[in-house]
Automatic annotation (TrEMBL):
The lineage of its organism: Bacteria, Pseudomonadati, Pseudomonadota, Gammaproteobacteria, Lysobacterales. One of its GO terms (cellular component) is bacterial nucleoid. InterPro entries: RdgC. GO terms for biological process: DNA recombination; regulation of DNA recombination. Belongs to the RdgC family. It comes from Dyella tabacisoli. May be involved in recombination. Signal peptide: none annotated. One of its GO terms (molecular function) is double-stranded DNA binding. It is found in: Cytoplasm, Nucleoid. This is Recombination-associated protein RdgC.
Length: 305
């Protein structure tokens, strides 16, 4: 269950205290099946196990794992429009009249009522956890919109959850450009093999994307000398995990290296034990990394109001 991407929010110690009722709050917002005439539903599903009796949270020390789920009907607009056209054309051919806007709207609503119960249902899941000790909300997505939607679900369950986006004191783009241009990496970091460089002067400025390349090469340095800045940078932390860090401070392509995976082993006897061990290892490793991000970019934890 290792996360592949990290979108991050922060919350205060007082908010952390309120999270002690998370399990109880989520119980009233469990994901239910999509009804025949519903386009979709959202809610929470068990991180471990299935069924109504399975818990909606899984805690290891100060970290609590939740899973936000959704069911959405797949009913493409093109399908509806094709059916609508056929029905309108049939009326025109058989009755010799044009269909007005109000009648067309009613026909479309009738089509939705007819087609929705037969539409396929797409399910999705997103894992997230709260670190109450250090004030982090960590979501396994690289999409800011998806992260905000999941955060909204948590807020609705709790009534209030004032987690806020990261507000770095050090500009990520400027700092990462300095790292790459001057080989000025903080201790514990080494370069990966990819980056994205852009000319920030204009919205349509030149873009250079490097993959599987030595980032200390003269070619990369030339792009930097010509005024491009780092918007994404591949990094390796303590030889234990690799990722691509964006100027939005979203971590993409997160991968735990062999030295970490070897520590997990394969001695777990069941799914619950395996989840417990994986989540404990995940949160322990990310605790160290997030602490360093806080240090490098100046990411203060919100204070109690």
């Amino acid at each position: 269950m290792f996360f592949r991407n990290l979108t991050l929010f922060r919350f205060s110690p007082a908010v952390a205290d309120d999270l002690n009722r998370l399990d109880e709050a989520l119980a009233e917002h469990r994901l239910r099946p999509c009804g025949p005439l519903e386009m979709g539903t959202k809610g929470f599903v068990p991180p471990v196990g299935r069924g109504e009796e399975a818990a909606l949270t899984h805690a290891v020390k100060a970290c609590t794992l939740v899973t936000v789920g959704s069911e959405d009907k797949l009913l493409p607009a093109a399908v509806i429009n094709d059916e609508l056209y056929r029905k309108v054309q049939k009326i025109a051919d058989e009755e010799g009249r044009k269909v007005g806007g109000r009648e067309r709207k009613r026909i479309k609503e009738d089509l939705l009522t007819e087609l929705l119960p037969r539409a396929f249902v797409r399910t999705s899941r997103m894992s997230a956890y709260v670190d109450k000790k250090h004030g982090w909300l960590v979501l396994d997505t690289s999409s800011r919109k998806s992260a905000e939607n999941a955060l909204t679900q948590i807020r609705e369950a709790l009534g209030s959850f004032p987690a806020v986006p990261l507000a770095p004191e050090e500009g990520p783009r400027v700092l990462m450009t300095d790292w790459l241009a001057n080989n000025n990496l903080p201790a514990g970091l080494t370069f990966g093999d990819e980056c994205e460089l852009k000319d920030p002067a204009t919205a349509t400025g030149a873009i250079a994307r490097c993959r599987r390349q030595d980032l200390d090469s003269e070619e990369v340095k030339e792009h930097l000398r010509n005024g491009k800045q780092v918007f994404q940078l591949g990094l390796i932390f303590d030889e234990r995990m690799s990722f691509v860090l964006g100027e939005d401070l979203i971590l993409r392509k997160l991968k735990f290296l062999d030295v970490v995976m070897d520590e997990l082993g394969d001695s777990q006897q069941d799914a619950a034990a395996e989840m417990d061990a994986s989540f404990a290892l995940l949160t322990l490793e990310l605790e160290r990394l997030l602490g360093k991000l806080e240090e490098w970019f100046g990411l203060p934890r919100p204070a109690d109001s």
